[in-house]
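Changelog note: in this version the structure field was regenerated for every chain. One regenerated record is shown below for reference.
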Amino acid sequence: MALLVAVSLPRQLMVSQRAELNYQTATIGKQLFNLAHWPVLMAWQTYGESLAVQTSSPGNILGSNAYIVSDYAEIEISITSKTNNTLKYSLLVNREHRLSGEFAIKQTKSRSEISHTLQGTIHSPIIGGFIVLYIHSLVDNMFNVSINNLDTQLKLAH
């Protein structure tokens, strides 16, 4: 029965998130669009004691990389496109599962709306659905943590 459930879970991942902050797009982008800031913004160290994180320098240009290695996964993140308002990235999990993500900032009168999407397919036929559920829960948590940490860092800077 468990095998039937595992095989029937979707292997497509689609995450869409939104938040608002009271800062200008450029101010948010300096932090959010730099992979060197992601380990702190997203509190990656809280996800595993044996987590090793390495980011390229600089972390805010096309082709910049971040590598995360834990007991459970090896992840490579690369910036694939960047403008003043968007950052697109690719995510390679265990050298097998490719996902694509995007952060976008839309400026309104006094606030900025931050949106994040992550999508892709997990290719493991038996446990792929469980991996999708796990990644979805991690991404939701990391987005919330990153917005809170970003807000705190920007408040402290002003």
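Spot check on this record: The beta strands are 12-21, 52-55, 65-69, 74-82, 86-93, 97-107, 112-121. The chain is about 30% helix and 35% strand.
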